[in-house]
Amino acid sequence: MDLLTALRSGGSVFGAELRPPRAELATAEGMDAWIDTYHAVRRLTRQGTFVFLTDNAVGEPEEDNLRHLVTNLGRDVPRERIVPFLTSKHSFEYCLSYAERAHQSGFPALVVLGGDKAVGVPRVVEHAWQLRQYLRERDHALTLGGWANPHADPERQIEFLIAPTFHAEFYLTQVVSHHHAGQVGRFIAAAERRGADLPGVFGVFFYRSANARTLATLQSFLPVPAEELTREFDAGATSEDVCARTVRTLLDVGVRHFYISNLPVGRAQHVLANILEKVGVTA
């Protein structure tokens, strides 16, 4: 089953977001990192989990995930459960070629994002919808995903989602926490008022600790409830407990689909299963 079919099926989707190795890694170190990534993708997809692969996350160049996947995963890994990201922080020719390679290699869906303006190379287009429009004009069969931010003004975000220029069949969101339940609830309420029926996959970050330096660094890229997280960890909560609380709370306010970010690559399948067990659901 491909992602769009799963999102429309009536049940919940729980995916894992993995980050390919950084491009600047030495050859041996980079190869080891890719081997770990291959194993994680195999295990997750074979158990039915969708895997999202980032592109230039937090502004740092990453290896070409398509090239490595096609070369090394083999045909026994279900391509329909792998969803690569493509940001507009590449040349226009690269973006068009990437989408074409994705389709030809059997990946039915692609998430197309703008990319962080504050770091890294400039975007090739001002807005991600413009790149999705170009890709849609070239290939009507490729399922495209967009982006929304529940932390921003909900009415404005829903305007983007329902606009004819959005050019996507689903969207992912910025990372949210159970401490952001109010913002998420307002976002969902606005979507219901406007009749926005595009399926959304909400991001949940797997915080491995409440290390002050790490949380401060993360705050440069995503909304981090640092004080609240610190209190939870200090009270004895584990990383899996905290992540499960987020998923459970968001389910209660109406979220149906999730991707879990920052899972430890070598144990991604095991950790995700433990989180969902604590929530009381299955992938």
Task: Explain this structure.
- The protein has 283 residues and is an alpha/beta fold.
- The protein has eleven helices and eight strands.
- The chain has helices at 3-7, 27-46, 65-72, 92-104, 128-138, 154-162, 181-194, 212-218, 226-234, 239-252, 268-279; strands spanning 14-18, 51-53, 82-87, 109-113, 143-148, 170-175, 200-205, 257-261.
- The protein has an eight-stranded parallel beta barrel with strand order 1-2-3-4-5-6-7-8, surrounded by five helices.
- α4 (92-104) links the parallel β3 and β4.
- The longest helix has 20 residues, at 27-46.
- The model has no long low-confidence stretch (mean pLDDT 90).
Task: Explain briefly what this protein structure is.
With 283 residues, this protein is of the alpha/beta class. It has eleven helices and eight strands. Strands 1-2-3-4-5-6-7-8 form an eight-stranded parallel barrel, surrounded by five helices.
The number of helical segments is 11
- Major sheet details: 8 strands, parallel, barrel
| Percentage of residues in DSSP E strands | 5-15%
Q: What is the CA–CA distance across the termini?
A: 14 Å
Query: What does the radius of gyration come to?
Result: 18 Å
Helix % is 40-55%
Give the ordered list of helices and strands: HEHEHEHEHEHEHEHHHEH
Strand order of the largest sheet: 1-2-3-4-5-6-7-8
Q: Which class best fits the helix and strand makeup? A: alpha/beta
Dominant shape: globular
Count of DSSP strands: 8
The average pLDDT score comes to: 90
Question: What are the defining features of this structure?
Answer:
8-stranded parallel barrel, globular, alpha/beta, 283 residues, 11 helices
